[in-house]
Amino acid sequence: MELGFNKLLSSCHPTIWKIIEAIQKKQSLNEMKINQYIAGVVESSRKRKRDTIKQLVDDYENRDKLEYLRVL
Q1: 3-state secondary structure the chain
Q2: Which tens digit of pLDDT belongs to each residue from 7-41?
Q3: Domain residues of the chain, as ranges?
Protein backbone atom coordinates (compact mmCIF):
# COMPACT_ATOMS: atom_id res chain seq x y z
CA MET A 1 0.00 0.00 0.00
CA GLU A 2 1.44 3.30 -1.07
CA LEU A 3 1.19 6.00 1.58
CA GLY A 4 1.44 9.58 0.45
CA PHE A 5 3.51 11.93 2.53
CA ASN A 6 0.49 14.14 3.33
CA LYS A 7 -1.40 11.11 4.57
CA LEU A 8 1.49 10.24 6.89
CA LEU A 9 1.33 13.73 8.37
CA SER A 10 -2.44 13.50 8.96
CA SER A 11 -2.57 17.18 9.80
CA CYS A 12 -2.78 20.48 7.94
CA HIS A 13 -0.31 22.21 10.26
CA PRO A 14 1.93 19.52 11.77
CA THR A 15 4.62 20.20 14.32
CA ILE A 16 8.26 19.73 13.40
CA TRP A 17 8.23 16.48 15.40
CA LYS A 18 5.31 15.12 13.35
CA ILE A 19 7.17 16.02 10.15
CA ILE A 20 10.34 14.26 11.34
CA GLU A 21 8.30 11.21 12.35
CA ALA A 22 6.58 11.14 8.95
CA ILE A 23 9.93 11.39 7.14
CA GLN A 24 11.27 8.49 9.23
CA LYS A 25 8.19 6.36 8.45
CA LYS A 26 8.45 7.12 4.73
CA GLN A 27 12.17 6.27 4.75
CA SER A 28 11.46 3.01 6.55
CA LEU A 29 8.79 2.06 4.01
CA ASN A 30 11.13 2.88 1.12
CA GLU A 31 13.95 0.79 2.60
CA MET A 32 11.55 -2.12 3.08
CA LYS A 33 10.41 -1.90 -0.56
CA ILE A 34 14.00 -1.74 -1.78
CA ASN A 35 14.95 -4.81 0.27
CA GLN A 36 11.91 -6.73 -1.02
CA TYR A 37 12.76 -5.79 -4.59
CA ILE A 38 16.39 -6.85 -4.16
CA ALA A 39 15.27 -10.14 -2.61
CA GLY A 40 12.93 -10.72 -5.55
CA VAL A 41 9.84 -10.80 -3.36
CA VAL A 42 8.05 -8.01 -5.20
CA GLU A 43 7.88 -7.71 -8.96
CA SER A 44 7.75 -4.27 -10.45
CA SER A 45 4.27 -3.17 -11.46
CA ARG A 46 5.60 -2.54 -14.97
CA LYS A 47 6.64 -6.22 -15.28
CA ARG A 48 3.25 -7.40 -13.98
CA LYS A 49 1.45 -5.18 -16.49
CA ARG A 50 3.65 -6.44 -19.32
CA ASP A 51 2.98 -10.06 -18.33
CA THR A 52 -0.77 -9.42 -18.13
CA ILE A 53 -0.81 -7.79 -21.57
CA LYS A 54 1.26 -10.67 -22.99
CA GLN A 55 -1.23 -13.21 -21.60
CA LEU A 56 -4.11 -11.24 -23.08
CA VAL A 57 -2.44 -11.03 -26.50
CA ASP A 58 -1.61 -14.75 -26.42
CA ASP A 59 -5.31 -15.51 -25.74
CA TYR A 60 -6.55 -13.25 -28.57
CA GLU A 61 -8.13 -16.06 -30.59
CA ASN A 62 -10.25 -17.27 -27.65
CA ARG A 63 -11.77 -13.91 -26.76
CA ASP A 64 -14.62 -11.82 -28.05
CA LYS A 65 -12.96 -9.01 -30.03
CA LEU A 66 -14.86 -6.20 -28.29
CA GLU A 67 -14.03 -7.62 -24.85
CA TYR A 68 -10.41 -7.98 -25.93
CA LEU A 69 -10.18 -4.32 -26.91
CA ARG A 70 -11.91 -3.19 -23.73
CA VAL A 71 -9.52 -5.13 -21.51
CA LEU A 72 -6.46 -4.10 -23.45
Answers
A1: CCCCHHHHHCCCCCCHHHHHHHHHHHHHHHHHHHHHHHHCCCCCHHHHHHHHHHHHHHCHHHCCHHHHHHHC
A2: 767 777 888 888 898 899 889 988 988 888 777 77
A3: 2-70
**Distance, CA of 25 to CA of 63 (rounded, Å):** 45
- Per residue in 47-59, pLDDT tens? 777 788 888 888 8
Contacts of 68 (CB under 8 A, 6+ apart): 56, 60
By the 8 A CB rule, do 26 and 5 touch?
A: yes
The identity of residue 51, as a single letter, is D
Neighbours of 20 (CB within 10 A): 11
- Please provide the distance, in angstroms rounded to a whole number, between the alpha carbons at the two ends of the chain: 25
